[in-house]
Design brief:
The protein is mainly alpha-helical. The protein is built from three helices and three strands. Strands 1-2-3 form a three-stranded antiparallel β-sheet, with no helix packed on it. The radius of gyration is 28 Å and the shape is elongated.
Length: 153
Amino acid sequence: MDTSLTTFDGYPRNDLDVAQIRTARARIIRLRNDYKGLMSSIEVGLHSHHAAAGNLAAARMQSSSASSQPPTSPADPIPSGLSSLEAPFAKVNSVVAGSPAEDAGLQAGDKICRFGGVDLMNHEKLSRVAETVQRNEGVSYTAPNLGRMPADG
């Protein structure tokens, strides 16, 4: 990147493809700038994520020490008596006849609070639910009526 492309008297060197080197250098500079920008946005995202996690932990500590209800958000209210991890993260739209969901007693409108190890805090737009189903496909399991809120609840 620092090698001179001209001779001592200012003419292009004849032992190098100057045009190709300049094009490559310009591309490297653009990629470095893109990398710096990406790293800056990742840094900002990490700072905001950890600040939010710290605020959430502080709010939980405060609510547990004050013995009050956990904070709720107006867009996704948590029913009284439930912690944020027990709050529903999905709602059953329909149940196919003869499916394992029907056999387990799920009904349209039921709210899912927990599915295997997946809950409100880690469902990642329901992708973790799909992963859990794929990992356990063909496995027989009798589930107790836990992790589910009835449709009228």
